[in-house]
């Protein structure tokens, strides 16, 4: 018998559509609580409504609460955890858990793009497939997984790519790590090992700034006058910035503010390739850290975790670059 803990946090999967207005909002009761689930007989579920929040209301504080609840579940002998979550920030919660306690036990997140009473609702199906994945032996030591639309994705790389399509979750460049069929759970890729750094606080101000053609340095100048704990920049191409941004970025670095750079491109990785004013080679020599395999929202969480563990400059750099 596999004992799984189910943690409902809210989101579209727990919402209903108003037939008159078409608006989608949280229901008084989570529709999944009374759902008739077709799951294998060897799976026992213990279900908790830990939150009932729309996805944009999730913060690192709630992510920390989920982490601590999962750690308690491990001590209580559970074999896995399934988390239902709103899709807007699902990838961030998944990544936070993956980075802090990823291999503690199988942890699977899922959600829905259509509320429970909409035509073609995908919530119940995604929920059942997530349960099946969390219960399978092959899910062990795979890190945190995201299961949607018959695909299994690694929390490290998955991202939401479409505002409404049920196939919204994709892993750029690499693709899913596995598939869910009617009768089987199939893992087709190895999940790369990652460093896990646990935290018990999530304080810090770390903004994200996206670069664009003709960008000047005023925004970075303003940030240099504020009390930020770090900065993530979505740079152009392989990792380049307009030249006017360089002076204020040097000022931030002189203030010991860690700056992490990712590409604003959907596919590929950021690298210090171009050696001109504002090019990646110059940025790296200045001390900007390249996070070459994750997007900006995940890089921000990594920087937040590093800040709350008070990593040294060298430790932070190694952690971000992994």
TrEMBL record:
This is asparaginase. It comes from the Bacteria. It holds the Pfam family Asparaginase_C. The lineage of its organism: Bacteria, Bacillati, Bacillota, Bacilli, Lactobacillales. Residues 207-318 form the Asparaginase/glutaminase C-terminal domain. It catalyses: L-asparagine + H2O = L-aspartate + NH4(+). The keyword Chloroplast does not apply. The active site is at residues 12, 87. GO terms for molecular function: asparaginase activity.
């Amino acid at each position: 018998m596999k004992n799984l803990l189910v943690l409902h946090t809210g989101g579209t999967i727990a919402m209903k559509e108003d037939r008159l207005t078409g608006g989608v909002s949280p229901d008084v009761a989570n529709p999944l609580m009374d759902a008739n689930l077709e799951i294998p007989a060897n799976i026992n579920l213990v279900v908790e409504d830990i939150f009932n929040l729309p996805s944009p209301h999730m913060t690192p504080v709630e992510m920390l609460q989920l982490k601590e609840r999962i750690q308690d579940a491990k001590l209580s002998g559970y074999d896995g955890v399934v988390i239902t979550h709103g899709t807007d920030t699902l990838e961030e919660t998944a990544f936070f858990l993956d980075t802090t306690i990823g291999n503690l036990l199988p942890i699977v997140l899922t959600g829905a793009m259509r509320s429970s009473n909409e035509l073609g609702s995908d919530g119940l199906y995604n929920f059942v497939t997530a349960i099946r994945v969390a219960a399978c032996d092959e899910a062990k030591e795979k890190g945190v997984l995201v299961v949607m639309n018959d695909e299994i994705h690694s929390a490290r790389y998955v991202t939401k790519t479409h505002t409404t399509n049920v196939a919204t979750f994709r892993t750029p460049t690499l693709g899913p790590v596995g598939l869910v069929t009617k009768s089987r759970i199939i893992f087709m890729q190895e999940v790369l090992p990652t460093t896990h750094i646990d935290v018990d606080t999530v304080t810090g101000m770390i903004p994200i700034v996206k670069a664009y053609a003709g960008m000047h340095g005023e925004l970075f100048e303003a940030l240099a006058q504020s009390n930020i704990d770090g900065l993530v920049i979505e740079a152009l191409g392989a990792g380049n910035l307009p030249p006017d941004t360089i002076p204020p970025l040097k000022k931030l670095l002189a203030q010991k503010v860690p700056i992490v750079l990712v590409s604003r491109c959907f596919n590929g990785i950021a690298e210090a390739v171009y050696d001109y004013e504002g090019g990646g080679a110059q940025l790296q020599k200045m001390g900007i850290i390249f996070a070459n395999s994750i997007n900006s929202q995940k890089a921000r969480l990594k920087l937040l975790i590093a800040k709350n563990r008070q990593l040294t400059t060298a430790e932070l750099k190694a952690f971000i670059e992994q």
